[in-house]
Amino acid sequence: MLILGGTREARELAHIASGERGFEIVSSLAGRVRAPLLPEGTVRIGGFGGSEGLRAWLAANDVAAIVDATHPFAAAISANAAAAARISDVPLVHVRRPGWVERTGDRWVRVPDLPTAAAETAALGERVFLTIGRQGVDAFAGLDRQWFLIRSIDPPEGPLPPRRELLLARGPFTLEDEVRLLAGHRIDVLVTKDSGGDQTEAKLAAARAAGIPVVVVDRPPLPAGAPIVESPEQALNWLRDMRTRQG
Fold first, then answer.
1. Is 44 helix (H, G, I), strand (E, B) or coil?
2. What are the two backbone dihedrals, phi and then psi, of residue 124, each rounded to the nearest 5 degrees?
3. Looking at residue 247, what is its pLDDT?
C-alpha cells in the first residue's frame, strides 16, 4: 500500500494501518519541508517524476492500492496519482479533511486562487497576516502598500512583498496565541488557504473576534473517478475492503 503523505491524516493512517496483518505500508513525502514529521514504517522522500514515474514505481514495487493523503492544495501530485492509478489499474482513494465552514460573525471573502486573493487583499487592509505556507507567496510580491506578516514552516521561495516580516512556526496554534499575534502586529486582514482541520483553525476564531476580514482561497478540485473519504479510519476501512476484494 502506498500512502502519499505529508499530512497528519497520512501519519495517523500509517500508524493505525501498521498493525494490520497483511499490510505492507510505504509512505511517500514530497520532501519540500526541511524537517518533516515522519510517519511510522517505511518512508521514501522525493518526487516520482510525474505520473509516468509514479506508474513505473507502482509496477516495480507491486503496489496493490494507493492512498492520496496529501495536502488539500497539492493538486499536482493528486492529478499524477489519479493518472498513474488509472493507467496501472491500481485502486486509489483520496483522503481529504473537511474544509472550514464560515460561522456567524465571520467576514470571509472566498476566492478561487492566489492571484485573486492578492487583488482582494489590496483593497481590504494595510497590515496583512499571510498564512498560505511557503508556496505562492510570490503572488503578493507586487503589493508594495501593504505590510505583511508571513507565517510558514520553512522560508518561502521566490519574490516576496517588499514590506514584510517572516515568522517561521509549525502548528498547532492556540486561540490565545493567535489573538495576541493579531493584536500585537495590528493585523487588519488575514489571508489563508481553506486547508481545514484544527491545527491552524484558531486564526479564524481570532479574526472573528477581532472583526477583521479573511480572504479564503478555495481548494482545487480533485480528479474525478476515485472515491473520497474524510478520515484515516475511513481510509483504513477502504484498504481493508481492497484487501478483501484482491484476495
1. strand
2. -105, -30
3. 64
